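Researcher: We're teaching a course module on how sequence relates to structure. For the next exercise, students receive a sequence and then see the predicted structure as tokens, so they can try to spot secondary structure elements on their own. Here is the exercise chain.
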Amino acid sequence: MSAILDKVKPIIEPIVSDMGCSLVDVEYLKEGRNWFLRVYADKEGGIDLDDCAAISEQLSEAFDQIHPDPFPDAYFLEVSSPGAERPLKTEADILAAIGEYVHFDYYFPQYGEKQHEGTLLEVSDEHYLLEVRIKTATRKFEIEKKAVSKARLAIKF
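Model: And here is the predicted structure for the students to work with:
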């Protein structure tokens, strides 16, 4: 699947960019009996249904021009917003999230927990500084970057 993404991502990125959006993520995966190519895009102020439809149309046309076809099976193309709890996959995503409420999952426990939610205060070469509210107290945790398995924006309740 990675080889397929390696072939189509260079086609996807400029189309999404030409539509005034930024590419957040691309997934090619099987769910049940069906394959899905999911393209997540965003822009300042948020992406809407018209943006998704326009990007989808351009991508479909571009994929029809690829010979040989990089997709071994029929698939569904989905273009959407990454959502309010969008994943933070790159260093640039993390840096852009400074001051935001985030969720971290860990490979190994940090401060006795396998996950935390809090406000991302700082990013250094080796650590993230996260402000976490535990009951009535607020604590700052220095989280090892190598400990973080997944990061995403979170909604604060």
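Model: If you want an answer key for the exercise: The chain has two domains: 2-80, 91-153. Residues 19 and 51 are 8 Å apart (CA to CA).
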